[in-house]
Specification:
CATH architecture: 3-Layer(aba) Sandwich
Strand order of the largest sheet: 6-7-8-3-9-10-12-11
Helix content: 25-40%
CATH topology: Rossmann fold
Radius of gyration: 21 Å
Strand content: 15-25%
Distance between the termini: 21 Å
Number of domains: 1
Length: 325
Amino acid sequence: MNGNMELLRVEALVKHFPIRGGIFSRVKERLKAVDGVSFSVPKGSTLGLVGESGCGKSTVARGIIRLVEPTSGHVFFKGDDLLAFDSDSMRAARRKLQIVFQDPYASLNPRMSVESIIGEPLIVNRICLSKDERRKKVAFLLEKVGLSSDLMKRYPHEFSGGQRQRIGIARALSVDPELIVADEPVSALDVSVRAQVINLFLDLQKEFGLSYLFITHDLSLIRYISDYVAVMYLGKLVEKAGVDKIFDSPLHPYTMSLISAVPIPDPDVKSGRIILKGDMPSPVNPPDGCRFHTRCSQKMPICSIEEPVMKEVKDGHQVACHLVS
């Protein structure tokens, strides 16, 4: 995964949320949302982070840009550890490190016009100091995301979900970022507009040389947009590889089950779907050993005792599983 220059490298990222209780609000337990996640995003590439809902994907996204403060670990962006930055340094770093949120209905301020929503980062970062400059920049960005510049005086409630997400993308682009963290950016959209927004991401990547950390639970989407894939389960990564290796020769039983669930548009081809038993365990009290062993049909005695470590099998294909020697 490190064939190109690394733009982002995450090392042993941990985020535990304290659960308080009692009259003194003491910490009773900790929710282990992210528990030692490591990966990298090469410059100009897309890493797809995939897993079931509740596995910790969005917490990883928010931890990287410090919308939530990680418990421990390192996040190196262009060689600098973001977790060592003070608030002023982090604010400056966010010019090159932006996020597009999942819900376009909640991520835009309903009291601000489109011009103000996209223009605000320009004011904060002192990019376009005059109103005329900002208006021209906003018009340029709206055109780039497929919206008319005539719409800049309108408010979010006047747009569809797909249009709102395009506005969110334009806001992220306003400060000329190098990396965009896309946190389930199309899951709240109608199926009919998802492909349009995904193709917009790809077009913008080509035009501006962007890198993406693309977070989703949709495997078919991951195959379409990603160069590399990292598979996450219950706060940990279980497999990492190039997109073709993940889909053509998955090694972890969890990855195999996810890929088997991807619909095949051919009625004559049997899907061979692998059905997982039970639900994902609670991140408050994850199982000992391999966290997937409670649902794995291929588990061995060691799986419930010893936690597997991530190891490279061949040509950058890494997996954390006792089944793989």
